[in-house]
Amino acid sequence: MSALTISKEDEKRVKGMGFLNNRGTDLFSARVLTVNGKVTAAQHHCMADAAEKFGNGNLLYTTRLSVEIQGIPYDKIEEFQAFIAKEGLVTGGTGAKVRPVVSCKGTTCQYGLLDSYALSEEIYRRFYEGFQDVALPHKFKIAVGGCPNNCVKPNLNDVGIIGQRIPEVNSELCKGCKKCAIEAACPNGVAKVVDGKITIDEMQCRHCGRCVGKCPFHTITNGIYGYKIYIGGRWGKKISRGKSLSKIFASKEEALNVIEKAILFFRDNGLKGERFAETIERIGFENVEKALLQD
User: What's the domain of life for this entry (predicted)?
Assistant: First the structure.
């Protein structure tokens, strides 16, 4: 079957299965899903074998941490899916629905403030797999960042989570050192000794937690862990930086519930073809935030 004889209906059908036409050919790229880029060695071997057996031998990685295997003939698509299924691998990740989740390596990174792998996997199971039948006005992307370093750009996704650690300051223990260890540890320069006492500008603090435990006089020995949520980010031809909700969420379940509200709000209020950023702009950030924060 040549590229000219593959109908638009057939091409659309397999695109919904995660197979994208290689431009100008009768071949397709399979988009094999991973859970935030994490695969077992056995799964990697299976994908390599599939690339040699059905495709052109290459594995490519997408910005959503899926793996694309190029050069698969149209009439081998179902056989390809059966081949990778033996290692629990599936294709997909297209369409106007929740897309596969991406995350940084905050679980193992020295700056990580949350278990980004575990959280993104829970989001994947609950909202990517669990919401497969939920039709949305457009695609909906979710990202998890382990800390304010923002490596995976959660604020450029429809919804993004960034781990937080809010320092708890006991200014009574502060000695007003001329060479303050907390000042030196703060990467954003928002911790200052003023009138002999350490102060932190709460409006400018990024809650990275770098200051915790740095003072030899125990001024900051702990910090409250939390989840900061951004909504309405996107990149591409039109770029929107997501805005953070005014509340930092103390529990994982509370944060996950807000994500669910955001998806369902988009389903119920978005217009066909518009991204969540455009829905928020049309309705107003304050109105959307109110809807997401109410019980």
Answer: Bacteria
Query: Which domains does the chain possess?
Result: 8-85 (3.30.70.3340), 102-164+225-293 (3.30.413.10), 171-220 (3.30.70.20)
Q: Taking the CB of residue 258, how many other CB atoms lie within 10 A of it? A: 20
CA distance 253 to 271: 29
| Residue appearing with tokens 């829970």 | 122
Q: Identify the CA nearest to 159 among candidates 234, 215, 221.
A: 234
b/e code 267-280 from CB counts within 10 Å (16+ = b): eebbeeeebbbbbb
Task: Render pLDDT for 195-204 as a digit per residue (tens, 0 to 9).
Answer: 999 999 999 9
Token duo for residue 47: 């994908």
Q: What is the pLDDT, as a whole number, of residue 36?
A: 87
Can you tell me the distance from the alpha carbon of 36 to that of 128, in angstroms, rounded to the nearest whole number? 12
The first and second tokens of residue 124, run together, are 């994947």
For residue range 234-254, list pLDDT tens digits in order: 998 999 999 999 999 999 999
pLDDT band at 295 (very low <50, low <70, confident <90, very high): confident
**What does the block give as tokens for 291?**
């809807």
Q: At what angle do helices 41-54 and 77-85 cross, to 10 degrees?
A: 160
